[in-house]
Amino acid sequence: MKMSLKIIAKIIDDEGLKRTITRLAHEIIERNRGADRIAVVGVRTRGATLAQRIVNKIEEIEQKKVPFGILDITLYRDDFRKRLKQPIVQRTDIPFHIDGIDVILVDDVLYTGRTARAAMDALMDFGRPASVQLVVLVDRGHRELPIHADYVGKNIPTSVGEEIQVRLLETDKEDCVLLVEAPEEEN
Amino acid sequence: MALSISHLLGLEGVSKSDIQTILDTAESFKEILSRPIPKVPTLRGKTIVNLFFEPSTRTRISFELAQKRLSADTVNFSTSTSSVKKGETLKDTVRNIEAMKIDMVVVRHAVSGVPFFLTQCMDAAIINAGDGIHEHPTQALLDMMSLKEKFGTLEGLKVAIIGDISHSRVAGSNIRGLQTMGAQVLLCGPKTLIPRNVEELGTSVNYNLDEVIEWADVLNVLRIQLERQESGLFPSIREYHAEFGVTVKRLERANKEITIMHPGPINRGIELDSDIADADFSIILNQVTNGVAVRMAVLYLLSGLEGSVD
Amino acid sequence: MKKSDKILLKGGEIIDPVAKKHETLDVAIIDGRIDKLGVIDEKSFSGKVIDVSGCWIVPGLIDMHVHLREPGREDEETVHSGCAAAMAGGFTAVCTMPNTSPACDNQNVVQFIKERARDELVDVFPIAAVTKNRAGKEITEMGELVKTGAVAFSDDGRPVVHSAVMRHALEYSGMYNVPIIDHCDDMDLFEGGHINEGKMSTWLGIPPIPDVGEEILIARDILLAKYTGGKVHIAHISTKGGVELVRRAKEERINVTCEVTPHHLTLTEDALVSYDTNLKMNPPLRTAEDITALKKGLQDGTIDAIASDHAPHSIEEKDVEFDAAPFGIIGLETMLGVINTKIVMDGIITLEQAIEKMCLSPRKILNLPIPGIAEGEHANLTIFDPKKSWTVNLHAFKSLSRNSPFGGWKLNGFVRCVVNKGVYWENSSK
Fold first, then answer.
1. First-to-last CA distance in chain B?
2. Which residues in C lie closer than 8 A to residue B90 (C-beta atoms)?
3. How far is CA C388 from CA C54, C265, C337, C352, C410, in A?
């Protein structure tokens, strides 16, 4: 995956990413009539980074604190037996009660829906939220489960031979979304 | 990021990076234990057999809990409910169990080397839950995890292990693991309970507990088996307490901050004063909590290797 | 094993340590006796001709310490299968230890064993128990036993624990000049042990057997031999300290002899890393330092004899957790090869000296006649090729048991044939 990456197109650049985050934040506030009863939870790794940015934006707009958590879904994956390498388990950090709260679940890319399914399973082990709303930066289609996103940064129809790469400053030294040729290993 | 080992037979020969991986993973698992629903579906469909040929409450419960937290199916097999007493050989017993299609075996046995023996007669991943007077690796891992939580690192830490070293598999694994992780280990106990060739394990011995306390950051106090007195290995409980008991008086005299560990169950007032066991510088209960997390980590990390490629 | 009225051994090198003979000669054997030595034309010989060029022809070798589990554990070894193993290993005689079931502590069992061995090529010399039922309390009917055919007394497998019993046994057997063969270990120190106390016992967490236990009993036995004038033979000596004690006793002309096994000369406790029960024996494997002392003992004559301590155990008994496995390994079929390859070829002792320790010395200790290689003598011969190599295959063993640590070893010293009691056995594998 690291070697000779073939880029097909840059879908979102750094400026575009800022605008998308701002729009998503506004949509979340609008749908939930403010930010009083919501909490934002990001899926490790890049979903968490995006979630942090969305939280910052919401707090900036609403001028109030929004609970923020991070979910590691490694242990909930349904593909873990098929993977060649065992994934590293990282910490889940949800420092608030989710009972009765509208949880905004953030991930970078929505594809088969299996990650979102695992994330929801993981979330349910923390309690019973009033609702779970799904935010994704990119929806690339090819769903294998009946899951849809409530907030979408951008819909990008792709073929199976392609892959979406979300690159973020914190982990990848730049902000952008790339459409690349898929390597052997699927994420 | 899998381990380079496929069984956990002991900490002998286990690399620093493997131990590090286990401890890091255990830290992540510890969070799960504090959730409202402390259970993840990771090992769903995996079958684990707990083969306990020796009575055990703590270790078995800790392993069972770890397995249940990971959603594995578990079966318990202990001597009192098995065919072992009917004269079946160990090999036949484990072959029979293996024929029932199991993925992992957690084994405790009074004879050293039995976990290794099992690797020779079955394909499942084997985890040693204590063999004879050899090793008890998950106990040492949870001890190390507890120390890492308290001190941040094991590098350079001075750990004294006090008591019956000769018959202690807890000491056997701690000596190996701690030294691999860069800690210094000193042993203390009556000479009759220290193996003759203990220097082979890379440690030294001091028979003077006060000097040992002076030196140490941590005292890992072992349980003294009272039947050792009957076989003449120390003169009396009273003398043991006087010479090797970790007492409030001794610690006061040393006048220093020190961390106390004990693998349990404690003989209060013999190897350890009650007040010390319950003091805030004792991390004995943290050890118990970490035991479940460490065992979850070991189960998770060893489950992934086998059958991981489609 | 075939009967043959006439055999011609062609082209072998005769080594007779008694007559100090060492030359290449053909041997004609007629009706079990050596008829002629010299250059014999095979065309003029009407019997069976065996080409033994490149081979050594030596007086029949004896293994003075074997366990043939008959009576009692015929699934592990019988007198017959043990004799087959002995022939394959180049031995024309064995001495059987009395820890059978029932124990060989009375004339009936001695007679039974001799009866079982009557038609064998191999001479089987029973060793009777020192004490009744090997219980360490009352001494056996030694006089009667000697008359019935017992060549020595031993409670092997365990020592004669009580000093008073040992004293009386030495006094009593001394009347017949028959040795007490003692398995030296202090049972209090031995208690519950499985391997040598040392690096590996600490490392593997296996209950230890201290070497000082062997030394304590050797010292006691030496002192009692001196005190009583009896004759003591130390079985399977394994410790540096033990060798030193025997050396000093011999300097003092005390009537003590000892033997060593091939495994104690070639394997150390370090081999135990994999908890292999075929490395579990008693006395246990010791250290490299002990091996050096044992080799020195062989060189300076402190150690008189080499014996295998052939101890057959079934696979079921050995294929268990380490502590549950019985002590002992088999060695009849590998002893000559191991000694030739690891002791003789490494220059520790000469092949002649090795032959002496597997033939002359044991026979002297046990008051047995020494076979000569001269015209008119009974033909009692071992013929082997010291240069020819072979690989130990446990499954090809004639023994009924397989508990050997030497499987897969490449050895030099191939047994070609043995001759005794008017019959001969020829190795069919090439």
1. 17
2. 320-321, 324
3. 9, 22, 10, 17, 10
pLDDT in tens, C376-423: 999 999 999 999 999 999 999 999 999 999 999 999 999 999 999 999
Based on the structure, what is the number of domains in chain A?
1
Q: Give domain B137-287's CATH architecture.
A: 3-Layer(aba) Sandwich (3.40)
Lowest-confidence pick of B191-200, C67-76, C141-150: B191-200
Class of domain B16-136+288-303 as given by CATH: alpha beta
B172: which chain C residues are within 8 Å (Cβ-Cβ)?
205
Q: Which domains does chain C have, with CATH numbers?
A: 2-57+374-390+407-426 (2.30.40.10), 60-365 (3.20.20.140)
Active site residue C309: yes
Mark yes or no for CB contact A76/B40 under 8 Å.
Answer: yes
Among B117, B133, B135, the residue with its CB nearest the CB of C321 is B117
pTM for the full predicted model:
0.87
CA-wise closest residue to C285 among C312, C260, C314: C260
A100 burial (CB, 10 Å; 0-12 / 13-18 / 19+) is exposed
What ipTM, to 2 d.p.?
0.87
Q: List the structure tokens of C253.
A: 């002309």
Give the Cβ contact number of residue A16 at 10 Å: 16
Please pick, among C105, C309, C319, C385, the residue that the annotation labels catalytic.
Answer: C309
| A172 part of a folded domain | no
CATH of the domain at A134: 3.40.50.2020
Residue B307 has pLDDT above 90, yes or no: no
Domain encompassing residue A136: 21-80+88-160
* Coil, helix or strand at residue A26: helix
